[in-house]
């Protein structure tokens, strides 16, 4: 059988995505409409996901790819029409998507997978994850979730900013933090007239007060095993880092003991220590210390202020908000070398958070959800509400 389709860029098929980045080093790939109900929508989402990674030069085919009686595509016609070596195609049957990644040069399918989910967007995201991993060797993050605060509401959304759902609202909320298994979010609410740390179960909506001590309770960060939270407490009049049980059932254990302000803790992925923000040197900078406290060493030096530090999933990099030239930009630091670089140009870029594969960073830019690749090669803005003040990328929730 012949092929019946036309080629379009992602913009021509109403994929809501724009960004910057050079196509020279990207994987060329063609995404065809999937056969069956919602097939075109699924293809559009896959194309948008791959484009948003900044690692693919994506072309869309408007139409289902025809095959012969054995299910073999017309590789030659596809290659001529699409211009990419690899092609994504497949079919939808109920809640199952059967996908194939074909190599038009070798005229073979190099990967096939059946994905089952009752949500069309998640079907597409899971296929995009498979394509991404097959192409790059790195696990895809398109089926993960993000959380962000807009106004006085905490939302959870798909990684592309779509399908946002309210978790809680009605009071000033800051500092959302995902549990390592993705089932709970810790956050700070001012509903009791001062900052108090809560942990909320996303499935049931139940929440627990885990830090409501004298003074301020803020900046929760989960230990890698999910059993503890590092928090900033001013219960003795000074803001220091403490460790508490994630259920709130233990007496706080003091980690830092500074006469200045210590806040914004974050664990190393292996649980060996943590970083935090402190103005003990005269201006807010990021320091590291052991899991039981002890001497702290400064790790940021460029920029008049460096705050909101996060460690990459492999423990090799630090991303943070850096004030330079009077504005805030996102910077990244190689922890082994100390070398740092700016990933964004500011002037109001804040609240960075690594994707669980470490390849991209979510942040706020002038109150909008934004993404930048960890190597600075690509950046884009996500759809969603404005007035975003805090963002955090959720973990992988399925075992590989």
Automatic annotation (TrEMBL):
Its main location: periplasm. It is found in: Periplasm. Pfam families: PD40 (PF07676), TolB_N (PF04052). Residues 21-107 form the TolB N-terminal domain. GO terms for cellular component: periplasmic space. InterPro entries: 6-blade_b-propeller_TolB-like (IPR011042), Tol-Pal_TolB (IPR014167), TolB_N (IPR007195), WD40 (IPR011659). One of its GO terms (biological process) is cell division. It comes from the Bacteria. Gene3D superfamilies: TolB, C-terminal domain, TolB, N-terminal domain. Keywords: Cell cycle, Cell division, Periplasm, Signal. The keyword Cell division applies. Belongs to the TolB family. Part of the Tol-Pal system, which plays a role in outer membrane invagination during cell division and is important for maintaining outer membrane integrity. The Tol-Pal system is composed of five core proteins: the inner membrane proteins TolA, TolQ and TolR, the periplasmic protein TolB and the outer membrane protein Pal. They form a network linking the inner and outer membranes and the peptidoglycan layer. This is Tol-Pal system protein TolB. The lineage of its organism: Bacteria, Pseudomonadati, Pseudomonadota, Betaproteobacteria, Burkholderiales. The gene is tolB.
